[in-house]
Amino acid sequence: MSGAGARTGSRAPRTTGPVHVIGAGLLGSSVGLGLRERGIDVTLEDLSPTTVALAADYGAGRVRTADDPAPALVIVATPPDVAADAVERALTTFPGAVVTDVTSIKLAPLLELTRRGVDLTNYVGSHPMAGRERGGAIMARADLFVARPWVICRDEETPAAALALVEGVALDLGGVLIEMTPEEHDSSVGLVSHLPQVVSSLLAARLVPATEQAIGLAGAGLRDTTRIAASDPELWMQILGANREPVVELLDAFGADIAAFADALRDPAQQGAKRRIADLLQAGNSGVSRIPGKHGSSERFTTITVLIDDRPGQLALLLTELGELGINMEDLRLEHSPGAQIGFAEIAVLPEVADRAVADLVERGWRTL
Known about the structure:
The longest helix is centred in the middle third of the chain and has 24 residues, at 182-205. The strands form 3 sheets. The chain has a 5-stranded parallel β-sheet with strand order 4-3-2-5-6, with helices on both faces. The protein contains 13 helices and 13 strands. Helices cover 44% and strands 15% of the residues. It has 369 residues and is an alpha/beta fold. Residues 1-9 have low confidence and may be disordered. Helix 3 (83-93) crosses helix 4, helix 6 (182-205) crosses helix 10 (244-266) and helix 10 (244-266) packs antiparallel against helix 11. It folds into 3 domains: 4-180, 3-Layer(aba) Sandwich (Rossmann fold); 187-266, 6-phosphogluconate dehydrogenase C-terminal like domain (6-phosphogluconate dehydrogenase C-terminal fold), CATH 1.10.3660; 301-368, ACT domain (Alpha-Beta Plaits, 2-Layer Sandwich), CATH 3.30.70.260. It has helices spanning 26-37, 49-57, 83-93, 107-115, 160-172, 182-205, 212-215, 220-226, 233-242, 244-266, 273-288, 314-324, 351-363, and strands at 4-5, 19-22, 42-45, 62-63, 73-76, 98-101, 125-128, 149-153, 176-179, 302-309, 331-336, 342-349, 367-368.
């Protein structure tokens, strides 16, 4: 199953309603929006009446009532510290339904449910690798899961019909299915999600005592490495606490790398110091080359930088002209020049079209770097 996936589209959905979503924050509301876009009936539930009403107002579904039929599928999208409670209650309240949770930790809820002696026949843990720096229904998107990995954690006792329901909703929302054990999942997200969050937050914390003059020099590198530091601290306290063993192990190894780098940099003239510094930097090159590109592919892109005037309509004009030139934009990042009425549009394109893109844009009067 690893690597199989689909985008949302015109084909008939695999999922049939009603689907009940417990937790109307970012993930729950995004699930609701995506399913509603596919014509699937979605009911919503949340401990906060305001939260569930807001999600319903945004079109993520409707608030469940006592008269609604029992759902075939329940999706638990609560914070990690109450996921086991919500899954147990859903299995009890809807004994005929399949229940999945989309929390970012898979082993801790499973162990807690097992400890309680809950019948987990109709439970399938899952996790879409998608999110945003800010949560809540107001930030939800119907396309949040498109082309993103969606991990399914099942075991040999998982009924085929239950597995098919959970896989179906993931595919209907555009996810790319990947099968892992809970242990493999938690170790993996510790490396690719939880460690980066801690590193980004600690780096951004170093900015607090910095002078305004120093902050004024900030560029794309700092923005890139601290972007996720804006995430919700309360939620991350729960995530990191639930996955502390893999994260602590990773932090210890990362700390050893930092100590080795600092030791070499402290006296670059010492024998072998320059090589240790170069080796660690080169290892970073090797590591970043393994990060999947667009839609999970390993394809790499070339970035061209276009100067644009900081006034209405300029970015739209640039994108229009790229379309007219037949240049497919793989990614876009904007940066403003402090104190100047100019911006930089960094556009990722396929390497084989980069030279033509630059030449054609310059011919049309655009300035490139």
